[in-house]
Amino acid sequence: MAKAIVITVDGPGGAGKGELTKRLAKHLNYALLDSGAIYRVLAYAARKAGLALFDEESLVQEARVLNLSFDVQDDGVHVLLNNEDVTSAIRTSEAGVNASKVAAHPLVREALLQRQRDFASDCDGLVADGRDMGTVVFPHADVKIFLDASAEIRAKRRCLQLEQSGKEANFDEVLKDIKDRDDRDRNRPVAPLVPADDAFILDSSDMTIEEVLAKALELINSKLDN
Ligand code: DC
Asked: Where are the beta strands (DSSP E) in 134-219?
């Protein structure tokens, strides 16, 4: 089989990567890698196993045996841990913070590297969503997008999401979580959240998802035509 076309979308939490990558994968009929879900599931499994999130060695062991799968259903992609549906459990703010802590360990990242690269085998194309997709996991990707947005806009969007799913949202707390998570993701020594040198930076602060999708498709088409 020919090498899959890889499109990476990196950026901070809440910039709209999830929605963009879902729509891109659907539009292009490509596979989708939600790498954040892998870190979220690892953190969830580690907590369940009673592991401390600073215990790198134990987290690496857990990462090696992590029985994780993605199941595409009519209402979206479901995340399974040992065949148990953990989709909603890993989407809480706490799960995001825990994922960010787990993801700060270099050896944990290394243990999960091949698992992520395997997503590009057995498919024509892959859309990869994360923090280091274009810098570390797929440095030779065909198209690299870095999707950004201000912390305030991201906090507003997150609050709206929480409210829509019937959960309470406190703007100041959400904003603090977002800023703390940004700091941890941007300042870690390995695979920090930075745009790849050859990434196209797209600021979604004042754009609708339709506008972001149109811009991303325009960029992808122009890159793949060349
Ligand atoms: O994209 P997300 O919010 O689901 O990611 C959760 C956390 O996982 C994020 O704060 C940092 C970490 N992460 C990472 O370090 N590298 C990735 N490629 C994806 C996520």
From this structure: 143-148, 200-203
The whole-angstrom separation of Cα 139 and Cα 26 is: 23
Contact in structure between 81 and 68 (CB atoms under 8 Å): yes
Distance of alpha carbon 105 from alpha carbon 56, whole angstroms? 6
- Does ligand 1 come within 6 angstroms of the Cβ of 146? no
For ligand 1, whether the C-beta of 16 sits within 6 Å is: no
Mean pLDDT, consecutive 10-residue segments, the chain of 226 residues? 90 92 95 96 97 98 95 88 96 90 96 96 95 97 97 94 88 94 89 94 95 97 89
Question: And the tokens for 118?
Answer: 């395997």
What the block records as the tokens of 176 is 């603090």
C-alpha to C-alpha distance for 151 and 158, rounded to whole angstroms: 10
pTM: 0.93
